[in-house]
Amino acid sequence: MEDGPRIPRLPVPGDERRSGGPRRPGGLRFGVLGPVRAWRDEEQVPTGSPQQRALLAALLLRSGRTATATELIDDVWGENSPSQALAAIRTYASRLRKALGEDVLRSEAGGYAVTAGALDLDEAERLVAESGRAREAGELGRARAACEDALALWDGEPLAQVPGPFARNQRARLEEWRLQVLESRFFMDLEQGSHAEAVSELTALTAAHPLRERLRELLMVALYRSGRQAEALAVYADTRKLLAEELGVDPRPELSRLQQRILAADEELAQPSAPRREQPGPLVRPAQLPATVPDFTGRSAFVRELGETLSASGARVMAVSAVAGIGGVGKTALAVHVAHAARAAFPDGQLYVDLQGAGTRPADPETVLGAFLRALGTSEPAIPDSLEERAALYRSTLDGRRVLVLLDDAKDPAQVRPLLPGTEGCAALVTSRSRMTGLAGAHLVDLDVMAPDEALALFTRIVGAERVAGEREASLDVVAACGFLPLAIRIAASRLAARRTWTVSVLAAKLGDERRRLDELQTGDLAVAATFELGYGQLEPAQARAFRLLGLVDGPDLSLHAAAALLDLDPVAAEDLLESLVDTSLLESAAPGRYRYHDLVRLYARSCAERDERPGSRRTEALGRLLDFYLATAARVYGVERPGDRLVDRVAATEYPGLSFTGTHAAQDWLYAEAGSLLSLARQATEHAAFLPRAVDLLWVAKDLSESGANTKQHQDIVRLALAAARERGLRRVEMRALLVLMDADHFAGRLEAADEGAARVLEQSEPQDDPVVVCWAHNLRGVLALYRNDHEAGERHLSAAIEHFRALEDRPGEASALCNLSRIHLATGRTPSAIGLAERGTAIYDSTGSSLRGANGRYALALALIQDGRTTEATERLDEALAVFREHRQRLWEGMTLCRLAEAGLAAGQAARAAADAESALGVLSGVGGEWRRAQVLTVLGRALVRIGQPGRARVCWEEAERVYRELGAAEAVEVRALLAAQGTGLAA
Predict the structure, then answer these.
(1) For residues 184 and 534, what is the distance between their CA atoms, to the nearest angstrom?
(2) Average pLDDT over residues 607-614
(3) Contact between 393 and 373 (Cβ < 8 Å)
(4) What pTM did the predictor assign?
(5) Within 10 A of 45 (CB to CB), how many other CB atoms are there?
(6) In sequence order, which residues have a C-beta less than 8 Å from that of residue 709 and are 6 or more positions away?
(7) Taking the CB of residue 6, how many other CB atoms lie within 10 A of it?
């Protein structure tokens, strides 16, 4: 295996071979890795009858060498050739020559040869050889990509439906080679750390080829590296038993040695052994550095010192440089300038993050690592949950690469340590208000204010040499008044540059007025405030108002439309105002149409608002407009995805309008792009009693942020804050809404008992006339939860009540939801025909509203009933339809559960290998979403599939884990799983 798979050549004389490249008259190419076909350019050329295709295949697989008529007769018919076989061969050859061209099929020495055209097999061999060379060079990413390209050339069974002994032998040969290539690709997957992703496909392949020990070996390694040691050992036990029963032999020594290493918990085996771990596919090279300041000036000693430190990273342990200084001293500008200068030394990419250490809510290292891993090409399901696991995967991903990481505005060493690469060749550049003395081995740089000549040079570059040349003394007065602080100099110079009628002396006179400058200019952090005050005092009234109001918002940034709502302006006027603030460097443009403050500037702007924005109600009104904007827009997103849902008509009234959307994609993109800002505002709104009703409704209509898994924890934490705030203020209606939203989240997270208790409290304290939409959904939720605990009588009672309340509310989608859930109650109580009818009614209602997402929920429920009715083909079709929609709408939980149901359908249809693969995929999708109860559901189904494909030992491990989860949750399903385990002991499990 180390040398890669090799395809055995045909035993024919001669060594001249036709190239698999593009040498073909008129773009002629052939395919044998599937049906025998020919194309000229993009048009398929007819290849005739099965025997004629057999003749063509025999010629193509001789790689341009001549085959005699006798050989061809043996190839096509073998020993049972007809009496007119020679005439038939000549007829087939004539027809092929007419179809392909005279210069393609030639008659030579009593035989025939195909001497032109590209062959898919030749290309596959070339790619596999390229993969082998790349592996030998340690380039596993390129090797795997070439291997995958080779496998993609297969289009079903080789030489499909081609008769004759030659085709039969070649089919077996080519299929064996394909399996070798597959094994090679899986080996590289494991070496690159993609073990979790490989389990599903390996499970299906071992079912299709149960006696192929190499596949079993790869599956054992994949399971072991995925933390599933017991399953890995069970695969060995299953294999040993199968080989003894079928062939009367023991497993090969390699498999036995692997079992011993797994038993011994071999740490070396648990890690990829390749010298370099690359992400599958093309190497992702992030380039996240912000734009460098075009008029960067001075700091030459620091630039040289930091540049030398970074350039030495390849010769020793990973370099860390930490730049410290007060806010506004130019730490970020220096770091970005140095990073850009060093880019050539880090060809594998540059990562950047603003850690917001000077703010009230510094960035969470776990969140930052998730963003870095995605930027480096790691897929979302492959990103672990915990900080420790993410940090470990991050360091592994960077191993062998040369990447520069710029960590801007760090709070303390504890925030930075998980974000350091940890290997030579990489480097980290950190900026912070405080010295990073706790970073072991870091090169520390204390950045002071600029020297007078550097400050004057910066001022001159912004204002222009002509204006400074005649007023040098006034210019020195200006930079001195700025305290030689770069940000202050930039603000003052920008104001002067924008006013052509001012002289430098005019500016110097303004700055000389101490009433316009704060004495804190020389006192640490307050020096930053003095610099900001200097710029703020020069703003026009409209700019100053915008500066103050923007500082009221806690979020990471604001979109143009959100800022327009805050400022009560139309977007065009707001953009002009915001861009003018960007010109003064008081505001940053994070991306086109998005704006943010440096954290210290935000704090200063807020203090200005508290001081100058009088009366205080003006500040409250501004935040209220922004909350209105987010609620109105999020409600429209909810309505686009759930047309006809009456919740959007019963959220708190808003005075400021939101955005409109033409389709679901635009609506979803807005919601996920605004997630951080939206949730930050919701958190902020929980601190104001007047905002609480709108905050809770905003969290309700934005619940997709939780259900999709994108922002689950943040969303649920803020709902809890809102619930506590409403309870503390005695806002019972708001409290019940918040409680329902939280219980719905608990349901999706698998906290079923807590969800039921909370939903019961909602019903106890809510009346239909007070808040009918809450009563509807609380009954619906309790009905579903009763179904889960097999309390079918209570479930039917609650769901019937939900249907009645939804109908009274004229909420058709809500009625459809309750009907589909009631279908599952009927299904659980043996009323399959009525279950199908209820699900069909619910799905028809969804479809009539035009809701593809909710229609997918209906198809999911309908498929469950169809499986029970034995209509597995229809069930699979409905589930496939639902799966496509859930993936499109980024609903990971529903995607995972639909895969689980597809596995159940596969079992019912006798397609155990496919069922096992679907169940494995479900486990991967549900990682971190849906809770332990749903994971146990999938494990139970996976165990059933594994038994069917001859892996009972591994099935038992899955069931034991499922039983443990159910037992700890107190779930009734534990009894069912124990029965499966007991039946397996008697050989009856299935």
Answers:
(1) 66
(2) 86
(3) yes
(4) 0.64
(5) 18
(6) 892, 893, 928, 929
(7) 12
